[in-house]
Amino acid sequence: MADMPVWAAPEITGWRRLPAHAVPRGGITLDGRWRFQLLPSPDASLSDRWAQIDVPGCWTMQDFEDVHGVRDLPQYLNFDMPWPDLPPHPPAVNPTGVYEREVDVPAEWAGRRVVLHVGAAESVVLARVNGIDVGMGKDSHLAGEFDVTHAVRPGEPNTIGLTVVKWSDATFVEDQDQWWHGGVTRPVRIYSTDPLYLDDVHISSGLADGGAGDLTVEVRVRSAGGLLPEGWRVSAWLDGPEPEVELPVDEEFAALAAEREQVSGWLGRVRLRATVPAVRPWSAETPELYGLTVRVFRPDGTVADESRHRVGFRTVEIVGRDLLVNGVRVYIRGVNRHDFHPRTGRVVSAEDMRADLVTMKQFGFNAVRTSHYPNDPALLDLADELGLYVVDEANVESHAYATELADDPAYLPAFLDRVSRMVRRDKNHPSVVIWSLGNESDYGVNHDAAAGWLRGYDPTRPLQYEGAIRYDYESGRAASDIACPMYASIDDIVGYARSGRQTRPLILCEYSHAMGNSNGSLSDYWAAIESTPGLQGGFIWEFWDHGLMQRVTDGRPAPDGGYAAGVAEPGYRWAYGGDFGDDPNDGNFCIDGVVFPDRTPKPVMYEHRELAGPVRIEPDGSSRVLVHNRQHFKDLSWLAAEWELSASGDAVAGRTAADRLRTVPAELPPIPPGGSATVDVPPELLAAPAGPGEVWLTLRVTTRDDLPWAPAGTTMCLPQIKVRDEDRDLITRAGEQIAGAGVGSWPVEVDGEGLLVHPLLASPPTLSLWRAPTDNDRIGGHAARWEELGLHALTREPLDVVRHGERVVVRARYTAAGGVSIAHEQVLTPTVGGVLIEETAVLPDALADVPRIGSVWETAAGFDAFEWFGQGPWETYPDRCAGGPVGAYRADVDRLFTPHARPQESGGRHAVRRFALTGGAARLAVHLDEPRQVSVTRHRDADLAAALHHDELVPLTRCVVHVDAAHRGLGTASCGPDTLAPYLVGPGTYTWSWVLSFT
Ligand code: IPT
């Protein structure tokens, strides 16, 4: 092969590789330990020494004896190629894995056709059996199958050899934004069939009139002997709706065989068709599947080959600018998912895939885009079974040479091969509702060629390709049936939908970039989508934080109490670009998921769950609530619910959690999909709240029974309405409440600088204008601007400290390191049990657009619990707070902070009206004049900003408390629109007041 390097020949996509098909096959697994050598290049010679390695497994993620001294670790890059050579040339240094193992091929396989199946290998695999070359294949995310009948020796041990070349011409069309690895990444097996075998089964299962299913099964039959034997026959039948009531193969199903047409003696093609009465349609909400068995019989009537399939009856079509599933315009609440695991890199087990999809379902996602390549077929089986719409994407991304390769005839076979092989493999999955030609490869005739093939082969599904519509949503019709932009702003998509020009559905293929503390305005996107005809949803970027588990070798102690959900275990960290010495790299741009690398949901997941919730409520008069069923296909009978009442008065009255939680079972009326009904609020709830303050009513909606993706009692959403407003000035009342609790008065004490002094305050309240930059702040350019202004380094100069009796007025000037000054005034008035702090600050025009304005202070050590009345219980920010119901919550201070792999501002709680910090006998309480952004963490902003990894943080024993008059929203500027105007902190005068009390 060295004389004819197939790894530098884009026109050769495979050699003796079998066509992709949709016949599920078992066989003998070859997973496990293999002999292994990692060579520096495909031309290098083998040694006599072999290491051992796991298959499937990335060699970049495994320890093995490195006989040839080839160190090949993961490298993270967005779209730059990892080496400078131009297409189609791989670099001279080209790690190449040589794998070998034995397998006992059963004696009974003699006379049968034998196939070697390599689930996936990056990026070229060359296969051998007993030293005989059996084939070669490219495409790192589809199986290569090779007919090895001629090479195997049944009844004996056989040696299977795989050579995996890491870099190739194919790498230029696999330039996705992710870690580069190498190795065999999906299961390997060997199977046999009768010489008369099912070559492919193509199922189309739509819906006919009157609730019937329209089933067509096209079967291709071949004979390894060449010509088919005279008298072969095919049958297919569908299981009954319940396993025990198997549908008889009656006359109607006999009609399945009626349209039989044998094309020639060389290829058998049979089309079977039936109308199946009264089917239960498949949808993401109702993933109803029917078993189908297909058999081919020998002329003597015995079964030669058989396959089992699962059929979901559903339609998908585009009508005007709507994508319809079963005739209904469904919202696409999607997320992009890469194959990822923190320990194995790109190798994911069926259990891992299930856990991914279960997490998606539990948090309201109904769709997944297999960004940016076909996934293991097991994932599609799970999507069929659990109910998720799939955009199945071909493994084509020529990002670094996008324009060039999209039109390059040398790469035409690769485009066609990758798209067609995916479609041939995945066509029978009801979950696949849209095909995608790939990602970020500009747009060229190679796409049109692939689209042309696809439309001919599968006219039942739409296809999409973002590159085709990038510069004009109305262009690229040949290659995209959907306007599927990435990171478009709300104004942009609404403008298009209202322009009168829109002729296709708009579904964002990527939006709301989840890097770090992000996903600002997700609720604004959904408000726009739900109110604008033509907009149908999108796919959040992305599911995973791609942090690889890496041992920290510098002897750093494990962070105190730091091993929590979302954090790598002690002694490890989540590694990102550069952490393996990988150069060049794109840093932490791969840490951009809605779940941490251990699949712990980030706060945005709760936001999403609420936005996607099956139930919404709104007030309807004083004692009634309008309940909406937000689903497309189901009623509410699968849900249970209870009413929960939270009253702000409770928080100050010091009631225990048990007293506070007033819950009453709620009856969910039978509301059809899309419908609404009015329900009465139980009178005992409305009568309940004692004392002053606001009252909120939450409907906790849970699963009633165990489901395949959620145990009974799993929360689906927490819609909420306010049933009583604040009736009196909160600050006044706070004072009264404290008085009511019998606390003595507390004289205000200030030092010579006018700073508040108290033994429980380690650091007095001062002005804060800065936050530890989020990834959005940093990449969006704000962090640099703020640093230039010097917002992180304010110096305070007291101007005057004046006592008016008990009251102290402190005027100060804060000057940012960049030179701009801010006038600030604190009026400190003793109240019963504490001090009322009234603050005013004037932000000059020179400080337009700052991250926050408010007070920062630190407690003495010893406070470890945080109780608050406000949004929660999870983290919320001004533009990401639709999923945090208002209530009275309690949490450990150590658990408030969100442990992003790269530290940044986090842990905030939005619209907090009051809070308390407790520890031992001490209690420190704060009552705010109005709902405000508050955070309590163990970290100072400067420490967060300086750290590059979570494990570098050393938690303080004190609490760092921020009480903000205003806090800039999060936005998504790391990739996409910045924080929207209503969530910015602009110039002007800010006033905020709070009562600080100690007991
Ligand atoms: C877009 C890519 O499709 C995706 O793979 C990922 O890189 C994402 O951005 C950012 O995390 S491409 C970008 C140039 C808009």
UniProtKB/TrEMBL annotation:
Catalytic activity: Hydrolysis of terminal non-reducing beta-D-galactose residues in beta-D-galactosides
Key word Lipid metabolism present: no
SUPFAM superfamilies: (Trans)glycosidases, beta-Galactosidase/glucuronidase domain, Galactose mutarotase-like, Galactose-binding domain-like
E.C. code: 3.2.1.23
Pfam families: Bgal_small_N (PF02929), Glyco_hydro_2 (PF00703), Glyco_hydro_2_C (PF02836), Glyco_hydro_2_N (PF02837), LacZ_4 (PF16353)
EC class: hydrolase
GO cellular component assignments: beta-galactosidase complex
Alphabetical UniProt keywords: Glycosidase, Hydrolase
GO molecular function: beta-galactosidase activity; carbohydrate binding
Keyword RNA-binding attributed: no
Protein family (similarity comment): Belongs to the glycosyl hydrolase 2 family.
Protein name: Beta-galactosidase
Originating organism: Planotetraspora thailandica
Organismal lineage: Bacteria, Bacillati, Actinomycetota, Actinomycetes, Streptosporangiales
